[in-house]
Each structure stands twice: as C-alpha cells, then as structure tokens.
C-alpha cells in the first residue's frame, strides 16, 4: 500500500472514531479492520514520512471533525471524542519517534484562577488543542497567580489559556496579566482568555491577546492555529 493510502485510511479511521483494530462478522466470514493505532504503527514501521502523517492525516482529521460539528453532523461529545482519538494518535507518534518541540506545534499552559470552580470547558479545550498537535500543560483547578507564573516560567509555553466562567474572578485575571507585563521573561507568551464570562470588548479591557466566549469562537481560534502552523 502506498504512503498516501495509509494517510487517507488513518484520517478516515479518526473521523469515524475507530481508534483500535477489531474483527467483524460478514456473510463471507470474519474480517479484520485496522484502527488508527495499528495504522500509525504500520506507517512508522515502514519508515514513512512523519511530517505527512501529522500534517495530512491527523490535521486533516481534525479539520473534518470540526467541519462536521459546524455543519450539525456531530454533537459536541462526538467532536471531543474524535479529538481525543487524534491526540492519542499523536501520543503513539511521539513515543515512537521521541517527543520534542519540533514534533508538536507548540505548548499551551491551561489554568483557572482562584474562585473558579467550573473546569469542564477547560478540559474540552485541552483535548481539542492536543488533537491539533499542541503539548498541553493542564494545571490543577484553583491555582494561585504565583503558581501560574512559575509554571509558565518552567515550561516556557507559546500560549497561556485562562478559563473564566464568573465575573467575580476578573480582578484575579487582570492581576495575572499584570504580572506578565512586569516580567520581561514572559513577554512572548500570548494570553488567551476563554469561558462564558467573556463578552464583547473583553480582550481589550484586560489586555489579553485573544478571547473565546463560546465553543464556536474557540473552534475559529483552533482553525486559525491549524492554518498558521502549516
């Protein structure tokens, strides 16, 4: 089988959610259907192009899954499941080839500030970002501003994502961003604010680089990331 045939099959398996191989009964007997994990291992065993595997198969699968969600073919849990499959596929790739900054698109630190109790949206974003190829550092809930700063200094991410669902935590977010502007070591980190408390003009009011108030805005941001890291 040619390289592009493997790439197409892997992408199809991801879109259908078939991560593991399985056997099924037909009128002609038992048939074997390979899954994503098996196809990726076969691709790597054949020394096929890792960049093609990432860019053409995994990124394409995420683009298709997002498009199906936007068209109403998928519900949100189905989109998240496909993203989880794609992220797991990248884990196989990174473990086999040795993870490095060159093998992922960048690093995201995700956090909430003190007083935030709802982390479901942050977890969804973590799965989606890993699905498109980012390394994710998902901090525990209710971390302090100092802990966020320490994590960013240690991991040196490209982005810091902060989840906000209640307006009462806005002062803590402003405090966090203020600490970044005071520290030259953190100037290059882009700050993204997400959550239901994000409204029109929110980004400018707290001096963040970008904001996403709902899942549709989040997907628009993710699609831009996919394009910019091609």
Write the layout of secondary structure elements.
Blueprint: H1 3-16, E1 22-26, E2 29-33, H2 36-45, H3 50-70, H4 76-97, E3 106-112, H5 120-131, E4 134-138, H6 145-155, E5 159-163, H7 170-182, E6 190-194, H8 202-206, E7 210-212, H9 215-228
Parallel strand pairs: 3-4, 3-5, 5-6, 6-7
Antiparallel strand pairs: 1-2
Helix pairs in contact: 1-2, 1-3, 2-4, 3-4, 3-9, 4-5, 6-7
What is the multimeric organization of the chains shown?
single chain
Q: Rough shape?
A: elongated
Percent of residues in helices comes to: 40-55%
Uncertain ranges: none
Q: At the fourth CATH level, what is the homologous superfamily of the largest domain?
A: Cobalamin-binding domain
Determine the structural class based on helices, strands and strand pairing. Answer: alpha/beta
Euclidean distance between termini CA atoms: 26 Å
Report the major sheet. 5 strands, parallel
Supply the number of helical segments: 9
Tell me the strand order in the biggest sheet.
4-3-5-6-7
Any descriptors?
Methyltransferase, Methionine Synthase (B12-binding Domains), Chain A, domain 1, alpha/beta, 230 residues, 2 domains, Rossmann fold, 53% helix
How would you explain this protein's 3D organization?
The chain has 230 residues and is α/β, with parallel strands linked by helices. The chain has two domains: 99 residues, Methionine synthase domain (Methyltransferase, Methionine Synthase (B12-binding Domains), Chain A, domain 1); 127 residues, Cobalamin-binding domain (Rossmann fold). Helices cover 53% and strands 15% of the residues. It has nine helices and seven strands, in the order αββαααβαβαβαβαβα. The strands form two sheets. Strands 4-3-5-6-7 form a five-stranded parallel beta sheet, with helices on both faces. The protein has a two-stranded antiparallel ribbon with strand order 1-2. Helix 1 runs antiparallel to helix 2 and helix 1 runs parallel beside helix 3. It is elongated.
């Amino acid at each position: 089988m040619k390289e592009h045939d493997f790439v197409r099959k892997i992408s199809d398996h991801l879109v259908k959610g078939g991560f593991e191989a399985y056997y099924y009964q037909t009128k002609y007997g038992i048939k074997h259907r390979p899954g994503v994990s098996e196809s990726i291992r076969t691709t790597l065993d054949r020394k096929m192009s890792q960049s093609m595997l990432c860019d053409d198969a995994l990124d394409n699968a995420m683009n298709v899954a997002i498009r199906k969600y936007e068209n109403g073919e998928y519900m949100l849990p189905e989109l998240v499941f496909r993203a989880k499959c794609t992220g797991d596929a990248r884990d196989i790739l990174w473990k086999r080839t040795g993870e490095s900054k060159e093998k992922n698109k960048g690093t995201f630190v995700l956090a909430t500030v003190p007083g935030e109790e709802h982390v479901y949206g942050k977890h969804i974003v973590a799965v989606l970002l890993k699905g498109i190829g980012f390394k994710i550092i998902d901090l525990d809930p209710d971390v302090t501003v100092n802990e966020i700063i320490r994590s960013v200094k240690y991991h040196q991410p490209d982005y810091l994502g902060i989840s906000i669902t209640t307006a009462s935590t806005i002062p803590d977010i402003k405090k966090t961003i203020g600490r970044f502007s005071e520290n030259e070591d953190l100037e290059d980190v882009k700050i993204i604010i997400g959550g239901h408390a994000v409204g029109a003009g929110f980004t400018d009011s707290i001096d963040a680089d970008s904001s996403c108030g709902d899942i549709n805005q989040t997907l628009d941001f993710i699609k831009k990331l996919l394009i910019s890291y091609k």
